[in-house]
Design brief:
single chain, mainly alpha
Length: 159
């Protein structure tokens, strides 16, 4: 699952509820199902091409609910599971450590095995979710603008 596009994550999200249902023991399973449903609903509203005041109000409400469910899942469920790095993450970290060690003359500690991994809610992507509704009100739906840089072409211009 490398180099996924946004549409790929959307497809995964749409299939996630039946795929994850019953995977965890209660009460973690019901907590995860509520979180996945809220995530799918939030995404459906966020990607609408045309919004009304009611749809933006619902998106605001969903954003608050999503944040509440994420914090609840983090606090009550994540702490119950021992999660570690994937083998590829370990290999990457060890390669980076070896490269750093060779540059510094061997003063760094030796690479290790799998390290604990926790859900990190302190990221910009998570923090920025609260700005979606405001941005839609300012600029319209996310399909109506581009963040691509525009630079006039210097090729072929006669000066």
């Amino acid at each position: 699952m490398k180099k996924l596009a946004g549409r790929d994550f959307e497809d995964i999200l749409q299939c996630a509820i039946p795929a994850f249902e019953g995977l965890l023991d209660p009460p973690h399973d019901s907590r995860l199902m509520r979180l996945l449903f809220c995530t799918a609903e939030w995404h459906a509203f966020a990607k609408l091409r045309i919004h009304t005041d009611m749809s933006l109000k619902r998106l605001d409400d969903l954003t608050k609910e999503f944040g509440k469910l994420m914090r609840e899942f983090h606090r009550l469920s994540c702490s119950e599971f021992n999660t570690v790095e994937l083998p590829g993450e370990v290999n990457k970290r060890n390669r980076q450590a070896a490269k750093k060690k060779s540059r510094s003359g061997g003063k760094n500690k030796a690479p290790g095995g799998q390290q604990q991994k926790e859900l990190n809610l302190s990221t910009y992507k998570y923090h920025a979710l609260g700005d979606y509704t405001h941005s839609i009100r300012l600029f319209g739906g996310t399909d109506s603008f581009s963040t691509q840089l525009v630079c006039p072409s210097l090729r072929g211009s006669a000066s």
